[in-house]
Amino acid sequence: MSDIQLYDVVILGSGPGGIQAAIHASRKKARTLMLGRLANSSLYWAHIENYCCMFQVTGEEILRTGREQAENFGAQFMDQDVLKVEKKGKLFELSTEGGDCITTKTLIIATGTTRNKLGIPGEKDLLGKGVSYCVDCDAGFFRNETVVVVGNQSAAAGGAMALTEYASTVHLVCDELDVAQSLRKRIAASDIIVHEGRKATEIIGENAVEGISLDNGERIESTGIFIELGAKGVLELASSLGILLDENMRYVEVDRKLRTNVEGVYAAGDITGPPLQMAKAVGEGCVAGTEAATYAKKLKID
Ligand SMILES: Cc1cc2nc3c(=O)[nH]c(=O)nc-3n(C[C@H](O)[C@H](O)[C@H](O)COP(=O)(O)OP(=O)(O)OC[C@H]3O[C@@H](n4cnc5c(N)ncnc54)[C@H](O)[C@@H]3O)c2cc1C
Fold first, then answer.
1. I want to staple 110 with a disulfide (CB 3.0 to 4.6 A). Which of 18, 32, 33, 86 is the partner?
2. 256 to each of 209, 228, 274, 278, how far by Cα in Å?
3. Is 14 in the pocket of ligand 1 (CB under 6 A)?
4. For the CA atoms of 154, 155, 156, 157, what is the dihedral angle to 10 degrees?
């Protein structure tokens, strides 16, 4: 095997988790490669208000600066997705969509999650124009406005409760509210208008959200629609290595050093579970990058 192709640390994902891992690994002089696309990061289209020491900055700006920073410390980037990962003895072999084959001593999985979608007209076109998948991130943009939360479970119900601190009126649209009794009581005691047994059929608006239509023909006038249907991880690659997932099979299990159950494989960011926030992704990226670099330096290959 040519030494030039062998990396100490390969990171799957170029969101904030992956970028921070690349910064810490490369500063420890580990040969580091990061894969994935900035524009596929959840952060790319976001406006960030709740990340320490940064205020009203775009996700795209953060990602571009972070990538440049990591490159300055020697990390390499490849704008490609990985299609296959295999364990070969103590090493890992990766195949990319461009046909490249990469060998590495350690792997950091930072592939994020995909928010579950409603799949109704208007949802895609009005994303970032009133449609949001994250109450924690965007509640502050809807102070004194009317908002609608769509979803059946605690993420939606808890999100609706949180929004009552910001919005003037909060509607909750759900097929069937599937939450603990205590949360149901809090919803009942609040001013939230619950539309139980209803499905959303269309999000209305030209350049910004104006409202939402329900399956009984009702239309709710609103400037914000929060879709809180949970998230699914990009877990196929993790599963192919035999990495343990949580009991709901949604997130990768890690310990405090961000190690998975497979030696040499770490995970960071949204893929390890909530809160699905940049601050957590960055913190985990720091730990995973440092730990993976340290492990790689000590690894003896026959
Ligand atoms: C609309 C919106 C607004 C948000 N606003 C905020 C906010 O205000 N504050 C906040 O803290 N958080 C916010 N978030 C959440 C935040 O974006 C995420 O928590 C954060 O981006 C997670 O980082 P990550 O590195 O784990 O994953 P991501 O940023 O999602 O990055 C995943 C990376 O993995 C790559 N990838 C996927 N599959 C592969 C593969 N097979 N091979 C190689 N690479 C792959 C992708 O290309 C991408 O680069 C928001 C999210 C959304 C969707």
1. 18
2. 41, 28, 15, 18
3. yes
4. 40
Q: Which atom of ligand 1 is closest in space to residue 234's alpha carbon? A: 38
> Is the CB of 110 inside a 6 Å radius of any atom of ligand 1?
yes
DSSP 54: B
Asked if residues 116 and 229 have their Cβ atoms less than 8 Å apart, the reply is: yes
Write the residue with the smallest CA distance to atom 7 of ligand 1: 137
In this structure, what token pair is assigned to residue 272? 């390890």
| Nearby residues of 116 by Cβ (< 8 Å), 6 or more positions away | 227, 229, 230, 231, 232
- Supply the pLDDT for residue 128: 86
CATH code that applies to domain 3-114+231-298: 3.50.50.60
117-227 CATH: 3.50.50.60
- Nearest residue to 174 via CA among 118, 217, 129: 118
Chain segment 147-203, per-residue pLDDT in tens = 999 999 888 999 999 999 999 999 999 999 988 899 999 999 999 999 999 999 999
Q: Is the pTM of this model over 0.85?
A: no
Bridge partner residues of 85 (DSSP): 94
Min mean pLDDT across 3-17, 64-78, 93-107, 199-213 is at 3-17
Whether 35 is in the pocket of ligand 1, judged by its Cβ within 6 Å, is yes
Q: What residue ranges of the chain are covered by domains with CATH 3.50.50.60?
A: 3-114+231-298, 117-227
Q: Does the C-beta of 158 come closer than 6 Å to ligand 1? A: no
